[in-house]
Design brief:
Helix content: 25-40%
Number of helices: 12
CATH class of the largest domain: Mainly Alpha
Keywords: ATP-binding, Kinase, Nucleotide-binding, Transferase
Protein name: non-specific serine/threonine protein kinase
InterPro entries: Kinase-like_dom_sf, NEK_Ser/Thr_kinase, Prot_kinase_dom, Ser/Thr_kinase_AS
Organism: Stigmatella ashevillensis
Strand order of the largest sheet: 1-2-3-4-6-5
EC number: 2.7.11.1
Structural class: alpha+beta
Length: 479
């Protein structure tokens, strides 16, 4: 098979047969903002195990050198193994870095849960594997900085969880690549201390938050909470003291066991431990891994039954996520997203759609019982909506739009703006679709879901609110 000719080649969509270094592209496997992933095999070794070849979309992208450095420094079964790296020269002359990892035949975490309906025991084992991967990173002074469900693959052959996409990671003495108050990452998974820092210093261009291993553990807690409840945890509203310092009193969200009574008590306690507002209460990755492994070894009826109730056969249901869509209003997410999406976000609460998987309703007494239970879990006390003493951090809360699956037209939400009689929306950037006006964005599925948008044909659409915000710069005329 001949390599396609010249300037027609696009790093984001290379056709099969393209040569990249000593590798031959077999198929496109995915893509993101900075790179595309291909299944590839070594040239003249077609029967060799395939690799996952990640190619930079931008010439000389420094993020790729950072990911190669991280993968070369840390070796663990739950981290991808680096097989090769190099530079691919586009026929037009530009140089694009690439690297090759072992090919993982698996599914993203939330999609895997949708298919396999895991028990608390299985989730504990997966979380322990991820904690061990973080332990290996942290032992080398490295951080992942973007732990989330979309960056976890569960291998089909043995259900091993692998922590992928280290492009946002950091190792000692690495140069800073991303300007801004906060390091790269996904807003819904940011730690409370990072969000408070941004609230406190967002007007100071010289202030830069330095992520810590406990930030990775908090993100793992968000991943676990999202996995077992279908929702993202949210903080209480921040407040500022007389000295002007921002604080948080605790989590506003219910404990996982309140939202999903099938969650094992030990799993519930360990998730709350990871979500502690005080970083020191989360412990280390090694301590967390040991606690998760010990909990997984203790079998009881609650830990071995499925966490989810199957109401629609999987063969008939669209695979989008495990559990129902989130209805939370997480102010740190809105704060971090506001810089890019402020004109698009909606003030108010929008209801999502039901998912093929639902969670059993807790009995009336469960919430009270959960609040009264206390475990010796290394610093996390209580299973209910207990306030945790606070830290300090950054900006006022916003609210956002709805969510849905990817294979059907997005449904118009109550009060959403609609096209006029000629099928046109009020502004050029608004898209008429299925009787409503939408903002078409480049958000990934996870961020779209968190903002209660709708994925359709691989694109995120945010609903246009009924009344747009008034410009804050408009003069006020008093009568």
């Amino acid at each position: 098979m001949q390599t396609p000719r010249a300037p027609e080649l696009n790093p984001a969509l290379l056709p099969p047969g393209t040569l990249v270094g000593s590798w031959r592209v077999l198929a496109w496997a995915g893509g993101g903002v900075h790179g595309a992933v291909y299944q590839a095999v070594p040239v003249n070794m077609e029967r060799a195990p395939p690799g996952a070849l990640k190619l930079a979309l931008l010439p000389r992208d420094p993020r790729f050198a950072r990911e190669v450095e991280l993968l070369s420094r840390v070796h663990h079964p739950s981290l991808p193994r680096l097989r090769d790296s190099g530079i691919w020269q586009h026929p037009g002359g530009t140089l694009h870095p690439f690297f090759v990892m072992d090919w993982v035949d698996g599914a993203p975490l939330y999609d895997w849960a949708q298919r396999h309906l895991p028990s608390s025991q299985q989730v504990l084992r997966l979380l322990a594997q991820l904690a061990r991967a973080l332990q290996a990173l942290h032992a080398q002074g490295c951080l992942h900085r973007d732990v989330k469900g979309d960056n976890v693959l569960v291998r089909h052959s043995d259900n091993l969880a692998l922590l992928t996409d280290l492009g946002s990671g950091r190792y000692p003495d690495a140069s800073t690549l991303t300007p801004g108050t906060l390091p790269p990452g996904t807003p819904a998974y940011r730690s409370p201390e990072a969000c408070l820092f941004e609230l406190q210093f967002f007007r100071n261009p010289q202030a830069h938050y330095s992520a810590q291993p406990t930030d990775d553990l908090y993100s793992l807690g968000v991943t676990a909470y999202r996995l077992v409840t279908g929702e993202y945890p949210e903080f209480c509203e921040p407040f500022r003291d007389e000295a002007g310092t921002w604080h948080l009193e605790g989590l506003a969200s219910a404990a996982p066991i309140v939202l999903n009574p099938r969650v094992d008590v030990q799993l519930n306690a360990l998730i709350l431990r990871m979500l502690s507002l005080r970083p020191e209460q989360r412990g280390t990755a090694e301590e967390l891994a040991e606690a998760l492994e010990q909990a997984a070894q203790r079998s009881n009826p609650d830990s071995t039954r499925s966490l989810f109730v199957q109401e629609t056969p999987l063969s008939e249901a669209p695979v989008e996520r495990a559990g129902p869509p989130s209805h939370t209003r997480s102010w740190p997410l809105h704060l971090a997203a506001a810089a890019a999406l402020l004109p698009l976000l909606v003030l108010g609460t929008w209801l999502g759609r039901e998912s093929p998987l639902t969670f059993p309703q807790p009995p009336p007494a469960l919430t009270q019982e959960a609040e009264e239970v206390h475990l010796d879990d290394g610093g996390t006390a209580g299973l209910g909506d207990e306030a945790v003493p606070a830290s300090s951090v950054v900006a006022p809360p916003l609210s956002t739009p709805g969510g849905q699956t990817e294979d059907t037209l997005p449904e118009v939400l109550p009060g959403q703006r609609r096209p006029d009689a000629k099928g046109r929306c009020a502004r050029p950037q608004q898209t008429p679709l299925n009787g409503g006006c939408w903002i078409k964005t480049a958000l990934a599925r996870e961020e779209c879901e968190t903002l209660k948008g709708s994925m359709f044909q691989g694109t995120c659409y945010l609903p246009v609110p009924p009344h747009e915000r008034q410009p804050t710069s408009r003069p006020v005329h008093n009568p």
